[in-house]
Design brief:
There is one protein chain. The chain is mostly beta strands and about 300 residues long. Helices cover about 10% and strands about 55% of the residues. A hairpin with a 2-residue loop joins strand 4 and strand 5. The chain is elongated.
């Protein structure tokens, strides 16, 4: 009686088909990974940004209008009226603001005539500022302000125009500033642009997209970005270091910071990449990118 099992020829063909299918599946997965690594991954971008849109005086105190201009919900914790660096009035807050939401916050205290700065602070330390001018005994002279973009060609759509790029920074064909090197030597390299801060500016907001990637593991001791504002050769503001998180492939992230600033006139925005690598062993492969650089000033029209 003939056997009812699968013939050896058919069994061999089935094994070949299964092997080919498995190879194709592996190829698709590896190809997808390589394309993602080459292109870079876009991480969810949620950042807190706050703006003081106006102030007004009432019998009960000063009313400050604030707007959440970021992409994440924030919680207001306090509002201050400052004379120089001294708080002459303050109010604790516990107010949530969704993206785009506007609210009025009150400082219930009498303030003598003079020039002041209002500061609003969130639970995570984000700050927004506005200038106040009090005349007479109770009348507030409202100083309207608007945002002024100070950076030109922040998206590198014009190549390296308006920017100075220190080696090994280059403008990538995909229109962003990039460093891509293999090295056993430490280095620091900057991109920078000269700009003018308008008179009457009370605060600045710096934002940009970035990624930091390096391999192999253990060969990179430190990799970070840091932003500066210079007046002449003097550093007048510096951000906290933006540290590499250990990623081996490009993952775009968002940086944003608002800060008070009372210096007007010529200045230089500088963003520096610093790499500390091991001098022995395999060369460190470093890949860093910056794009969509914006520096806005909150200033009178």
């Amino acid at each position: 009686m003939a056997g009812s099992g699968v013939s050896p020829v058919l069994a061999s063909l089935l094994l070949v088909v299964i092997a080919v299918a498995a190879a194709l599946a592996t190829y698709v997965r590896v190809s997808s990974y390589l394309r993602s690594a080459e292109r870079g991954v876009e991480a969810p971008q949620f950042c807190e940004l706050l703006k003081v849109e106006g102030v007004r005086a009432e019998d009960s105190g000063v009313i400050v209008t604030v707007r959440n201009i970021g992409s994440a919900k924030l919680v207001l914790r306090a509002v201050y009226v400052l004379k120089g660096d001294v708080a002459v009035a303050a109010e604790k807050l516990d107010l949530e603001l969704e993206p785009g939401q506007v609210a009025d916050v009150r400082v219930s205290a009498g303030v003598q005539p003079g020039d002041y700065t209002v500061k609003v602070v969130t639970a995570t330390g984000v700050e927004a500022y506005a200038r106040l001018q009090l005349s007479g005994t109770s009348q507030l002279a409202v100083t309207t302000q608007h945002e002024v973009e100070l950076v030109r060609n922040g998206d590198f759509s014009e190549g390296g125009a308006y920017w100075t790029l220190e080696e090994p920074w280059v403008v990538d064909p995909q229109q962003y500033a990039r460093v891509r090197v293999s090295t056993n030597e430490d280095f620091a390299a900057s991109i920078y642009q000269d700009l003018v801060i308008p008179e009457g500016a009370t605060s600045l907001t710096l934002s940009f997209r970035y990624y930091l990637a390096a391999s192999p593991p253990g060969q990179v001791n430190r990799l970070e970005l840091k932003a500066y504002l210079l007046s002449g050769s003097n550093v007048v503001w510096g951000s906290a270091p933006i540290a590499w998180d250990g990623s081996r492939v490009p993952v775009w992230k968002q940086f944003a910071q608002s800060f008070s600033f009372n210096l007007a006139g010529p200045a230089t925005l500088k963003i520096t990449l610093t790499a500390d690598v091991k001098e022995v062993g395999a060369a460190s492969s470093i890949d860093a990118g910056i794009d969509d650089i914006s520096l806005t000033a909150n200033a009178p029209p």
